[in-house]
UniProtKB/TrEMBL annotation:
GO molecular-function terms, A-Z: pyridoxal phosphate binding; transaminase activity
Organism domain of life: Eukaryota
Protein name: Aminotransferase class I/classII large domain-containing protein
Organism: Bicosoecida sp. CB-2014
InterPro entries the UniProt entry points to: Aminotransferase_I/II_large, Ethylene_sulfur-biosynth, NHTrfase_class1_PyrdxlP-BS, PyrdxlP-dep_Trfase, PyrdxlP-dep_Trfase_major, PyrdxlP-dep_Trfase_small
Organismal lineage: Eukaryota, Sar, Stramenopiles, Bigyra, Opalozoa
A biological process term (GO) from this entry: amino acid metabolic process
């Protein structure tokens, strides 16, 4: 099949809607590729936004009307750091709306999760597919032959995920770090007048550095990336690697360094790019 990646953000007020999916279908049709599955990320990477229940219901209705599989990648589910923002799984939305015994819910709605984001355990190489589709289960059975998760790793993951007290403490601390890191980046960008998407989740900020490009091209974007990396010793992910709608968008990761180190790095990076305004 053909994978059609939609731009990470097409407008400053981007939200996931049926109209966005319709545009994707039109583009796929022009390529002669009928849409069989919709894959979303919730919370979104790189935008750091969380899809609301209403948005998920709209997408669910769209997929159900067309008998299209809906897969929700929820690997950032526990990275919501804004207290006013609620994450809800597509599995809960589907069962609440249509019932657990609905044929479409049983066969066409699936969720993905893993240990590498919420828990920083990328070395475990462990992920989860949650689906009630028995044919899909059978098709995935062969994956274990060459990509199995060791018994020891499975045991440790089971112990971790069933320790409710530890989970509550760990995730509370983790969200505090994410909140602090986001504030550092947001304050630096606000101070420099650099536009960005207001995030409520995740470990990244999606920022618009297009005003600092020598030209509105991918080549100029990569040149700015290399300059900031070399002069500020700060690495941002170019938008071209994230299917950005236009050159100049960058993803800034906020969740790794301590707040002070992140602030120092942002100060250097902002100094490099803002110097171009007077150049």
């Amino acid at each position: 099949g053909t994978v059609l990646a939609r731009p990470a953000m097409q407008a400053p007020d981007y939200r996931l809607t049926a109209a966005v999916l319709d545009a994707g279908v039109a583009e796929a049709a022009a390529r002669g590729a009928p849409v069989r599955m919709v894959l979303i990320t919730n919370p979104e990477n790189p935008l750091g936004i969380v899809h609301t229940r209403a948005e998920l219901e709209e997408v669910l209705e769209w997929c159900r009307a067309r008998r299209v599989h809906l897969v929700s990648d929820e690997i950032y589910a526990n990275c919501v750091f804004d207290d006013a923002t609620e994450f809800v799984s597509i599995l809960d939305v589907a069962e609440d709306k249509y019932g657990a015994d609905d044929a479409f819910v049983r066969t066409h709605v699936h969720a993905l999760f893993g240990m590498s984001k919420d828990f920083g355990l990328s070395g475990y190489r462990a992920g989860f597919l949650v689906s009630r589709n028995e044919e899909l289960h059978a098709a995935c059975g062969g994956i274990h032959v060459g990509h199995g998760v060791s018994g020891d790793t499975q045991l440790r993951i089971a112990e971790l995920l069933t320790d409710d007290a530890w989970l509550d403490d760990f995730l509370d601390v983790a969200r505090g770090h994410l909140r602090a890191g986001y504030k550092v980046v947001a304050d630096a960008l606000d101070g420099a007048g650099i536009p960005y998407v207001r995030a409520t989740s995740g470990m990244f900020v999606w920022a618009d550095f297009s005003a600092f490009l020598a030209a509105p091209t991918r080549e100029a974007e990569l040149a700015l990336f290399e300059e900031v990396s070399a002069r500020a010793r700060f690495v941002m992910t170019p938008g071209s690697a994230m299917v950005a709608a236009k050159p100049g968008w960058f993803r800034i990761c906020t969740g790794w360094h301590a707040a002070k180190d992140l602030k120092d790095a942002l100060t250097r990076a902002v100094a490099v790019v803002t110097a171009k305004r007077s150049a």
